[in-house]
Structures are given as structure tokens and as C-alpha cells.
Write a structure and sequence with these properties.
2 copies of one chain form a homodimer. With about 350 residues, chain A is of the alpha+beta class. In chain A, about 40% of the residues lie in helices and about 15% in strands. In chain A, helix 1 crosses helix 12 and helix 4 packs parallel to helix 5. The longest helix of chain A has 19 residues. At the A-B interface, strand 2, strand 4, strand 8, strand 9 and helix 8 of A face strand 2, strand 4, strand 8, strand 9 and helix 8 of B.
């Protein structure tokens, strides 16, 4: 969205204003009021949590996908088959966020009955921020695990062309003091992050891919050119990505990343997503489990810091701080994208070719 | 086991001879014939698969733990509680391999009934090679997912002292052409691997930790000294390690890595392990699912290689090749450790202080 070489300018917008504007943009794009509310809440919360890439920034592209017919805003989630604690849904290429929210909630309902609930969703579309659903399950009081497959965007280890998705994997541990949440794509850095560093004229903190000569590099521009982003942990992230892809497609009886590659539509179009909710107090008392978790987090957070003044934290803890700040001071947004979304909301901008695909 | 600075010498031993010798060592240590058979098979298979570190090499330390009373060879796995597809067991600090084999098999039995089976095991001991159980579930025709927590051996990201376990995570996808198996510890390299490189006088292929000055390094000796091994994917492996720890302890109502640290016994003593089996044909036909998986693997394996002549493979595929070679030519073993295990088997060596703890 931002032109190459142009530095982004940020501003802060009140959460409610942000959410209502996104909601209006969604309704203008053809979503029902109910679905627009769900989507706007998830996008606004992601920005409020500091995940701009899948918050406000992603709204224009979502609208573009709707306009292109890659996302069908009128599709309804369909229960295909079920066995006890496990259910299989077809998303019919409907709204990714709406499908994923309903499947997360259904996993929680199943866990209430069976102790565990597993929902395997196929033929859905981009769920935006993966962590949304693990957080949601944890906020409902359950442990959440969810992952998705995607089309290929990362080379398999030992290859120099994209061959596997970056397939995010998320786990949320419910705690009364705030959940601990892993939200981890299998690439070391997202392409979006490379752009941020390049525009700021900075090197990546650690090598993030290979240059065109096959050398490991921290130069974000060189990696954008080669398309050889680095799997997190080298061969480890590549291996985990491919099994996450296969497991999602197997569990949901849906498409693998390879099947999506063949169809060559928008990002995550037709993907599979898995949602697991687990009752944290199935075998232990609430008091014992919460005390065990709190001691674990306390010990981790009090590890001796490598750099004085930079305390260690567990994943998700800093997100809670960012969220608090956003609610108090307004949500940080990219000025240009904010203008664009306002124009979409007002019906003055018809987005049909943002992704260039 | 090998003295510092001494280069290891390897030889090949026929699989059956290896297994029977380990079995005899296990019986000499006090295991029943039945349990010795289970343990010997798992150790010998690990070596045959090329995972020496948790195959033959680990036998003396296991015997040491039995001799010290950290593993109780007479303990029986106990069903604590159950709800539908989920069962909770207490391992009573019995034999890690035996407990884990029984829990894997039980997960498969539950999956036969419920479509999915989840066994959460607490108070168990080291299961040796994590991938053993995912392979086992896949060989029974089910998708397997298993993970364990461990005592702290790796710094949290941003810390300079061990604060979290390297908590292996394993996934096996059943395929008629051989399973695809992820067996991934959360550290970039195991300490054992650092030793192998140091003894060979080699640098690690990629940075594997920090030296005493806090700089990222590929020098294995410098990392052994600082005890700052690198989480795979930097902050990603650290975050995943801590949620794997918490999720295992929560699901099994057992000890976290922090609880194990306080008790300060042998490696993994008292840990929690999770075993999940999922029916791959719950929602799709065998033909469709196998065809989807085969296409996915074929495409990944035919990614353009970064180096000509070095083909890309999915995890587990090369293991099958190594296993075939071991069965044909004999299993590769460290000569010195092989002698040691033979002496244990013959009752000529009483191991009580190998780990120095």
C-alpha cells in the first residue's frame, strides 16, 4: 500500500472510531451488518494489539478479494460431518474471520461437553491474525490451539524457490493474569516485516533469508528480490511448515498448500484451519492449575536478562500492555492506509487491484 | 561418555545383536523381560534410524538412573481419570519408554473409538527419542502428535541462563509410502550435537548459541562453556518451548519445567507427555487423503534444489533410507559405548555416576 521508498507516517485513532470505520468499509463492500461487526472487531483488535499487518493494513486487500469474488460474503459455514468431539466444516470460501470465529466458538462448545473440542474447517479464506482465535478460546477459559495452511511463500529447506506455506501455529494458555499466547508463522520474518526494515533503511536484527547468490543475509531488500525468506530455525521451520500443511488438510479433508498453489488465487483462498479447545480443569483443580501456570510464568519472566533493563517476558504478555496503551491513547495506524479505509467506507474508492494478482 | 578431545570411533553391529545386548543390559539393571524387550527395541530402532544420541548412546545413562532410583523399573502406569476421548495417566516415575509406548497405543485405541484419542501422562521419565511415538502412531495408521516438557536447559529469549526446556514436539503423517515425521526440539542444536562438532574440530553450519560475551557464534565449544544454546528461530523457539511446557503440564495436571527445576533430579524426571492420535480417514476417503498427501510430498521433494545434486526431502524420508541401510549393513554404533553396554549386559560394569549429577 505504501509506495516503495516512502516512509510510513503513523497516527493514533480512538479504538471505537477505528472499529466503526472498518465496519462501514465492510458494509460498503457488501457484508451483512452482523458479519461486518465481527470482522471490524477482529481487525481493530489486531491493530490495537500492535499487529497492524493483519489489522487495519489488511482491510483494503480483504475488500479487494470480496470485489474480485475470491471471498464470498454471502457464503454460510456448513457442518459436513461430525464424530463426538470432532466436527468438520466447509467454509464455502466465505469470510475468513467469520468462519474462524464461529469455528473457535464451536470448539469451545464441544470442549464444554467432551473436555476437548476439535473443529477442522476446509475451503475457507484468510483468517487474518492467527492468534485471534487462540486468544478467543483462552478468553473463553479454554486452552486453544489453532493452525492453518497457506499457499507456498517460503522455500523448503535446501530449495531456492517457494515450496511451502509459512503456516502459522498458535497456542494460548488461559490465565487469570492474562493468557500466554504463541502466534508463530514458520518463516523467521514476514514479507511485511522485511518491507518495514527496508523502508526504514535498516538491516534485520538476524539473518532473514538468502540473497540471489545463495548467501544468508540480513539485508531485507536482497531477500525480497530473491523471494528466499528463511524458515524459522532453518530446516526446523521448513519441516514443521510441511507437516502443519499436511495435518490441516488431512484433518479437514481439504486442500493442501500444493492444491492451493495449483489454483493460484489470493492469499489463503481455499485453505484448511484447525481449532482445538481443551478444558484446562479437566483433570486438575482451577487453583492448582492456575498456581502451576503462574509459577512457571513468574520463573520465566525472572530469568536473568542478557541485557540489563530488558526483562524477559512470555509470549502475549507485552501484547496486553500494547492493548492497554491503544485503548487509552488510541490505536496506532498508518496515516495513508487509514485514509484509504475511510474512502472505502465512504464509497469513494473501489479497490480491485491492490495485490497485483 | 567419550573423553573430551577424544575422537569417536564407529563400527556397525547387526540389528538383532544390538537389540539383544541392550535387552540383556536392561534385564541386568532390573527390568522385567517384557519391559526390557520394549526398551531395547526402541533404543535399537533409534540407533538404526541414525538417532544415536537417544539410541545406544543413552543406554548407560538410563541404567544409571535406574541404579540411582530416579527411574523405578517396577512402577505401573495408572489411569487417573478419563473423559471420552481424553485420558490422564500417572507414570509413577516408571520407565519412560514403557510408559510412552503404552500411552501412544492407548491414544490409538481411543482414536479407533472416538476419531481422536488424547492421552496426557504425568510423573513419567525420559522417553528417549520423541519421534518414536509419533512414528508408532503413524505406523498404526493414525496421525500422531506428541510433545513433552523437560527441565530447563535453554535460556528464554533475552536471558543468559537456562530458563526453559528444549521440549520436543513431534508430528507424524501416516502415508503408505512411509510417514512424514517432524521430530523437533526447540533448541537449534542439541548439546550432544555441539559435542560432536567440537570433537571433530568443526564449526556448526549455522550459529547455535551465544558465547560468554553475548555474541552469536558457530563455535560449539564457546556455547558449551556459556550454556547459552540458541532457541530455534530465536524468540520463536523460546516462545514455543514455554507454551509446550505449560500446555503439557496443564493437560496432564502435572509438573511444569519450573517444578522439575526445583526438584533438580535427572533429565526429564517427573515430566509430562502428551500423545494424540487422529483418524486420518475420519472425514475423507483413504484414497483421497493418501492422494492429497502424496501430491504434497512429491511437490515439496521436487522443489528446485538450491545446490544441484542435493535434493529436497520432507522430514522422515531420509530416516527410512538410513533404517534400510542399518538393517542391511548393520547399525552404526560408537565403539566405546558399545563396549560399555556389553559390559553392563554382562554384569561387569555398575554405572552410577555418568551424568555427574
Amino acid at each position: 500500500m505504501t509506495e516503495k521508498g516512502k516512509v510510513k507516517v503513523h497516527m493514533r485513532i480512538e479504538y471505537d472510531v477505528l472499529k466503526e470505520t472498518i465496519k462501514k468499509a465492510m458494509e460498503t463492500a457488501g457484508l451483512s451488518e452482523e458479519n461486518a461487526e465481527i470482522c471490524a472487531t477482529v481487525h481493530a483488535q489486531s491493530s490495537a494489539d500492535g499487529i497492524e499487518s493483519h489489522g487495519l493494513n489488511r482491510v483494503p486487500r480483504f475488500v479487494e478479494y470480496v470485489n474480485k469474488g475470491w471471498v464470498n460474503p454471502g457464503a454460510e459455514l456448513e457442518l459436513v460431518s461430525a464424530k463426538g468431539a470432532v466436527e468438520n466444516y466447509d467454509g464455502h470460501l466465505g469470510i475468513g474471520i467469520v468462519n474462524a470465529v464461529h469455528c473457535s466458538d464451536r470448539a469451545v462448545e464441544l470442549a464444554k461437553i467432551h473436555g476437548v473440542g476439535i473443529v477442522a474447517l476446509k475451503n475457507t479464506t484468510h483468517w487474518m491474525r492467527g492468534g485471534t482465535y487462540a486468544w478467543r478460546i483462552a478468553e473463553a477459559g479454554y486452552m486453544g490451539i489453532n493452525w492453518t495452511n497457506t499457499e507456498s511463500c517460503m522455500p523448503m529447506w535446501g530449495s531456492d524457490e517457494p515450496g511451502v506455506g509459512n503456516n502459522p501455529f498458535c497456542v494460548a494458555i488461559p490465565r487469570e493474569d492474562g493468557p500466554i499466547v504463541l502466534d508463530m508463522a514458520m518463516s523467521q520474518y514476514a514479507y511485511g516485516k522485511l518491507g518495514v526494515y527496508r523502508l526504514a533503511g535498516k538491516e534485520l536484527p538476524y539473518p532473514g533469508g538468502f540473497d540471489k547468490d545463495g548467501d544468508l543475509t540480513s539485508d531485507p531488500g536482497a531477500i525480497e528480490k530473491s523471494r528466499r525468506i528463511l524458515p524459522a530455525g532453518y530446516w526446523k521451520g521448513s519441516s514443521m511448515a510441511v507437516v502443519l500443511d499436511m495435518s490441516a488438510a488431512l484433518m479437514a479433508n481439504g486442500k493442501s498448500g500444493f492444491n492451493m498453489d495449483k489454483e493460484n488465487r489470493g492469499s489463503c483462498t481455499g485453505c484448511c484451519q484447525i481449532f482445538i479447545a481443551y478444558d484446562p480443569y479437566l483433570f486438575g483443580s482451577k487453583e492448582d492449575i492456575q498456581s502451576m501456570l503462574n509459577e512457571r510464568v513468574f520463573a520465566a519472566d525472572h530469568s536473568h536478562p542478557a541485557e540489563q533493563g530488558t526483562p524477559v517476558t512470555c509470549p502475549g504478555e507485552r501484547t496486553v500492555q500494547t492493548r492497554k496503551k491503544s485503548m487509552k491513547e488510541g490505536v496506532r495506524v498508518d496515516e495513508q492506509i487509514w485514509s484509504q479505509v475511510q474512502e472505502i467506507a465512504d464509497g469513494n474508492l473501489n479497490v480491485t487491484d491492490i495485490s497485483g494478482k
